[in-house]
Structure prediction request, 400 residues.
Amino acid sequence: MTDIREEPAAAGAATSVVREDDRVNLLDFDLEGLTAWCASHGEKAFRATQLARWLHRHVEGDFEQMTNLAKSFRAKLAELAKIEPPQPIAEKKSADGTRKWLFDVGNGNAVESVFIPEDDRGTLCISTQAGCAMGCLFCSTGKQGFNRNLRTSEIVGQLWWAERELRRDRGITDPNDRVISNVVLMGMGEPLQNLDNVIPALKLFLDDNGYGLSRRRVTVSTSGLVRQMDKLAEAAPVALAVSLHAADDALRDKLMPVNRKHPLADLMAACRRYLKVAPRDFITFEYVMLGGINDGLDEADKLIELVRRENVPCKFNLIPFNPFTQSDLRKPERDRVLAFCRRLNEAGIVTTVRKTRGDDIDAACGQLAGEVRDRTRRAERLAQQKAEAAVILQKGLGTR
Ligand code: SF4
Prediction:
């Protein structure tokens, strides 16, 4: 039975009818939004701060446990609000400590989060969209097509859920003793295509009354949406990782359709602008290495030339491609990856090869799409992308 009741009118608003399912999800609010919502229900700003600390520092999901809130406020919260992260429908644990959750986001869509423990940090990789519209040739998520943007609560909820689970497992009760020290928006989706929901989530990650992470410990990854990079710089200038994957427009056009709209010169100019406010004095370039496509030393030399010419201080993170069933692209040979890495380092550009983690649970980015239902024109896109990959493989670099 649906519970229908009268909600106290917000300032300037007519009295409205609230159904139980219409309770606000408090995980949708950054501190500013929470303060405004509390004010609209007659509560002072310090109550919003207290509430935010319970929600995000204690990762508490039960209003009754929020003991320093007035009883009347707790009753009001129970009536009008809820704390609702997305629910996990699968969880996998790797022998190396990597954990993966697959979260249900409704209508047959699911998104994934991956926790990667290291000696000095715990990193959570989270998703920002169900599917992705960018159509990068080498990406499993891109092959699903785009389903929808995640809400702020679905983005924040991944961190909320993971932190809670990990703390429970370790028996941690002190709210200052956090397991997740770093967050990277590198899961499913292009974060900068969902700025309306991503920005409040980032603000909450950075807020001392939220997750209290420094800007250096929060990284947004983009395929190269230049105008949105400027917006991010203005609203929440966290660390930035740019998916580069090619040293010239001819190849990047083929690997990443976004390049046809925002070619390398525009992207490099946007990187220079971003660096003026970035928490680090370099941009991280992600470079997926595709066997026989972009893994030769001539490509390394072109990259060196590109970043010197464009004057972008940077580091490179090389990601050896991990083949998946719907792709004809090839894994690069280990020797070529190491030689490529060496060439960049010798040129004075700090370059690392991404460590493979969670192999036994398919945790590497872009490898988990098989568990998500495709809601879009998958077969068509797949056929087109396979044809494009075949052309590149057949003709190699000589076609450019
Ligand atoms: S690599 Fe990133 S931007 Fe490109 S299709 Fe995959 S999820 Fe989207």
The pocket of iron/sulfur cluster is lined by residues 132, 134-136, 139, 141-142, 188-190, 223, 366 (CB under 6 Å).
